[in-house]
Amino acid sequence: MRAAIEIAAKHKVAILPRGGGTSLTGQTVNHALVLDFSRYMDKVLEVNAEALWARVQPGLVQDNLNHHVRPLGLGFGPDTSTSNRATLGGMLGNNSGGSHSIAYGLTVEHVIELTTVLADGSRAVFGEVTPDEFAAKCRAPGLEGQIYREVARIRETYADEIQSRYPAHWRRVSGYNLNELVPAIGRRGTTNGRPFNMARLIVGSEGTFVTVLEAKMRLIRRPKKTAVEVIHYRDIQEALESSSSILETGPYAVELTDKMILDLARNNIEQSQRMGFVQGDPAAIMIVEYAGE
Fold it and tell me: Domain of 234?
């Protein structure tokens, strides 16, 4: 992998890391040397059940990670609808969420450390650093040191702008995670005081910063029990207006399905057999899941 990147750098050819190709906006298509991680770099390298983390390769499919740690009562929090083919590398690149994101947040909140290859083929590990460690990184030679110095410059120049204008809502996956340059800005725009972690800045960058070789990811303990409620609505507006009240009940997951999707499912030979939970002909349904011990 490093050799391929070194050759690409020598000839000024773009690099495109690719996972399962399940993204919807062309992230895995470009005029570039495509590095497909899904065939060979798809292993679970290490699991620490007590500390709740796993070290994985970027081509590992999300479901395969969950199957690996399920006997331990663990799982990976973000759960995309494409979990049987989406890879962890792709989830890191896109900062993926899923139906349980209201409980577990996005992928950025589950990354601990990333082992990467930089644009010149050099290897670098990005993770949590103290202020003293960050300063030492800024003094380091080579491309890694240059990256830290540039991050320090951007943070010093634009910290006030980021704090005052960065969107406060947490379900945002477009653009770079500039809020991670200012650790005081948390998931929901609140102060959290966590140490700076360069890996969190890399998440969501769609392969434009580094090429990930290994990822140390945080795991979650699976709830012992779950229950699902299906709410039927007369019109879509009624469903939308009820969402705030539903969130106040502390759900584990919330999914809205409108009439168009319901009708398509009814007219599909396979899916129509799974529609027994829908009563009558609602304009929309809200599927609400709760979890507990």
Answer: 226-292
Q: How far is CA 2 from CA 9, 122, 167, 176, 213, in A?
A: 10, 7, 36, 25, 10
Residue 187: which of 196, 177, 195 has the closest Cα? Answer: 177
User: In 3-state terms, what secondary structure has residue 115?
Assistant: strand
Alpha helices in the chain (DSSP H): 2-10, 62-69, 88-94, 101-104, 131-138, 142-165, 198-202, 236-247, 259-266
Q: How many domains does the chain have?
A: 2
* Of 110, 102, 105, 78, the residue nearest 290 (C-alpha): 102
Burial of 160 from C-beta contacts in 10 A (0-12 / 13-18 / 19+) = exposed
Whether 213 and 232 map to the same domain: the answer is no
Looking at 192, 221, 250, the residue that finishes a domain is: 221
Q: Is the pLDDT of residue 183 over 70?
A: no
Angle separating helix axes 131-138 and 142-165, nearest 10 degrees: 130
Residue that terminates a domain, selected from 199, 221, 243: 221
The answer to whether residues 185 and 170 touch, using CB atoms and an 8 Å cutoff, is no
Phi, psi for residue 31 in degrees, rounded to 5: -85, 95
Phi, psi of 107 (to 5 degrees): -60, -35
CB 76 within 8 A of CB 44: no
pLDDT tens per residue, range 149-158: 999 999 999 9
Mean pLDDT of the chain: 90
